[in-house]
Amino acid sequence: MAPLPEEWNKLFSKAASEYEKQSAGVTRLISQQVLPLLLPITASSVIHDNACGPGIVALDILALADKAGTPPPTIYATDFNQAMITKLQSIIDEKSLKTLTAQVMDGSDLSSFADDMFTHSITNFGIFAFPDPVAGARHILRTLKPGGIAAITVWKHPGNVFFFNEVIQSVAPGTPEWFPIKEWLEESYLLNIIEKAGFEKEKFEVRELRTVWNVDDVEYTAGLFEGPFWDPAKEKLSEEQKGECKVVVRSLLEERKGKGIEMVARVLVARK
């Protein structure tokens, strides 16, 4: 069963200060594979980084413009979590990023934005946390300019979650599987939402993107599995079992050292 909106909010508030570290950088690694699918991005582009978290996508876009020596596009970054926006705003202020604005906004209700506003809309691993994903997808479509392009990413195989379930079963056999967004692993689930929102079948495609949750440093990676993202998975464990989890995590990571944990995403790329 998917977490309730307030549960997502609580979880992301805990993780906001170290979101990229806690996610082992995999959401950035995927978004860096997505951006080449959305070109051209120019100084005249108006981009929505939807469910932006700490601004991973927006900051990467600005970094690419800076590297190319071209003027940056205008980017609106929104997230329903205040802690994430506060984190991003601190970066905006520190780096004086004049073309990037950040504001709290629920992805299910983008009514503050006008119709046909964006040339690009990117929702990187966020739609599954929307209170109403269909409404959110409708707003993505509504706010895109005609000819604009949207990208929505979800997980197909989040190997880190499968890994942690393996840990839990080793410590407490028979414990119910912990998988908050399992329905999203099926491509049909995403497509059903996109089609209900009004996207035209002939104007979108789905691709698979792959990366790896790095396990070169076992102790470092083991520490990530002690972060707030994994607290809900351990709720039904005793304190003794939680302690055993730490031992099992390290043991299983040793087996994957140098190989990592496979992470497979889907990206839906759609035109309006």
From TrEMBL:
<dbReference type="GO" id="GO:0008168">
    <property type="term" value="F:methyltransferase activity"/>
</dbReference>
<dbReference type="InterPro" id="IPR029063">
    <property type="entry name" value="SAM-dependent_MTases_sf"/>
</dbReference>
<protein>
    <recommendedName>
        <fullName>Methyltransferase domain-containing protein</fullName>
    </recommendedName>
</protein>
<dbReference type="Pfam" id="PF01209">
    <property type="entry name" value="Ubie_methyltran"/>
</dbReference>
